[in-house]
Amino acid sequence: VQLQASGGGSVQAGGSLRLSCAASGRSFSNNAMGWFRQVPGKEREFVAAIGWGGPTAYYADSVKGRFTISRDIRRGAVYLQMNNLKPEDTAVYYCAGRRGSSIAMDATTYNYWGQGTQVTVSS
């Protein structure tokens, strides 16, 4: 089972990026998926998660109104649209999948992880 995250890069504050996460080896169509981020020296931080049905989503307060998580069940992909980016959004972003279908904010409850993609936002 592999989760491949992509789409990171360097942007100026106020810019946008769209992260993608492609799954292979198994289907996650009935499972919750999430995005987390981490900066050196800090714990991995919850960003957003989406339930198996697609429309159900939950966001960290710090990104609410700026980020949107979505999924393409047919393609087995999850996306994170990030708008109005701020320097404090700079981090390595990871996609993750759970065996269960319910949304979770706790990284320890996720069973599958991608390799991470770097997002750098300059002021």
Poorly predicted residue ranges: none
* Average of pLDDT: 92
Oligomeric state of this protein: single chain
What's the number of extended β-strand segments? 11
Give the amount of beta strand, in percent. Answer: over 45%
| Category from helices, strands and their pairing | mainly beta
Alpha-carbon Rg, integer? 13 Å
Distance between the first and last residues' Cα? 37 Å
The dominant shape is globular
What is the helix tally?
0
- Output the helix-strand order: EEEEEEEEEEE
**Largest sheet features:** 7 strands, mixed
Portion in helices: under 10%
Characterize the structure shown.
The protein is mainly beta. Helices cover 0% and strands 48% of the residues. The chain is built from no helices and 11 strands. The chain has strands at residues 2-6, 9-12, 17-24, 33-38, 45-50, 57-59, 67-72, 77-82, 91-97, 112-113, 117-122. Strands 2, 4, 5, 6, 9, 10 and 11 form a 7-stranded mixed β-sheet that branches. A 4-stranded antiparallel β-sheet has the order 1-3-8-7, with no helix packed on it. A hairpin with a 4-residue loop joins β7 and β8. The mean pLDDT is 92.
Explain briefly what this protein structure is.
With 123 residues, the protein is mostly beta strands. It has strands at 2-6, 9-12, 17-24, 33-38, 45-50, 57-59, 67-72, 77-82, 91-97, 112-113, 117-122.
